């Protein structure tokens, strides 16, 4: 039993994509997510693992309100996610995507990118917004001189720091991190993961952390959900998943994760702590 309040609840969430195949063939259906029910408690990290194509990103897009479920619903702090509540939801739940190269507007400066949510939500006057942006950029380790830089003037790790600052500027309780480090160099991955851990400790954030990298999930997650062909096949504490997995698919995933020393995750993480 987890005593912390529930921040995010997925209730029998499903998504079926329909693919038209021309006039003479019937449309094909792809059941990408199949009746998934999950709970994320405040201040906790739920790791979601599974191989490519198992439905992780589809699930993430539904719970951010970016994709309409075929069935089921999502509750954020007890309120149903949907187009009518998109603005309210944005203040509670924010995404960090895999690719910081494409998720930042190339024509805006760092300060503009991070400050945009404050403008859209009309929070504070211009001077207050500038101060909030600077404070947030300090928190994620961006030097002041980069405020006027454009995304193409930043390294991959710096771009992901900017994306994290933008995600946090509205002070959400939940971050949905969809493979946030997989496009980065291994040493930069460790820095970003440690930053996410620090921010979680500082703000009591809850993370849904989606990754195909079991070493990363072992390092970060309190609980782990294992997804296979659109369904959750195992949901357990990190210790039980990594030491006593029950489902054959989880065991297969663990066996195929090539770490130099099983159980230690990625070595760079341990070294940078
Ligand atoms: N817009 C779409 N239209 C049709 N099928 C789609 C669409 N998006 C995803 N799919 C299919 O749904 C299934 C789940 O895809 P999804 O991208 O959610 O998986 P994933 O686990 O996130 O994979 P990856 O780790 O490679 O990103 C796959 O079979 C994919 O081909």
TrEMBL record:
SUPFAM superfamilies: P-loop containing nucleoside triphosphate hydrolases. Residues 8-254 form the ABC transporter domain. Keywords: ATP-binding, Cell membrane, Membrane, Nucleotide-binding, Transport. GO terms for molecular function: ATP binding; ATP hydrolysis activity. It holds the Pfam family ABC_tran. Belongs to the ABC transporter superfamily. This is ABC transporter related. It comes from Verminephrobacter eiseniae (strain EF01-2).
């Amino acid at each position: 039993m987890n005593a912390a309040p529930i921040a995010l609840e997925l209730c029998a969430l499903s998504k079926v994509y329909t693919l038209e195949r021309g006039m003479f063939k019937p449309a094909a259906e792809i059941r990408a997510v199949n009746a998934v029910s999950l709970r994320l408690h405040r201040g906790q990290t739920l790791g979601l693992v599974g191989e490519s194509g198992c439905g992780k990103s589809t699930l993430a897009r539904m719970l951010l309100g970016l994709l309409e479920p075929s069935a089921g619903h999502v509750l954020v702090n007890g309120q149903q996610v949907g187009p009518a509540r998109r603005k309210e939801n944005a203040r509670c739940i924010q995404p960090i995507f895999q690719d910081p190269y494409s998720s930042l507007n190339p024509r805006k400066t760092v300060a503009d990118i991070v400050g945009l949510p404050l403008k859209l939500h009309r929070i504070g006057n211009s001077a207050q917004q500038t101060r909030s942006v600077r404070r947030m950029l300090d928190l994620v380790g961006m030097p002041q001189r980069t405020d006027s830089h454009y995304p193409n003037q930043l390294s991959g790790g710096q771009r992901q720091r900017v994306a994290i600052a933008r995600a946090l500027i509205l002070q959400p309780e939940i971050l949905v991190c969809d493979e946030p480090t997989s496009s980065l160099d291994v040493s930069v991955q460790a820095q970003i993961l440690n930053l996410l851990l620090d921010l979680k400790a500082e703000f009591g954030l809850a993370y849904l952390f989606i990754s195909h990298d079991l070493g990363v999930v072992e390092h970060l997650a309190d609980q782990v959900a294992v997804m296979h062909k659109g369904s959750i096949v195992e949901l357990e504490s990190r210790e039980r998943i990594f030491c006593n997995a029950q489902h054959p698919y989880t065991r297969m995933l663990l066996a195929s994760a090539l770490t130099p020393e099983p159980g230690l995750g990625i070595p760079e993480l341990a070294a940078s702590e």
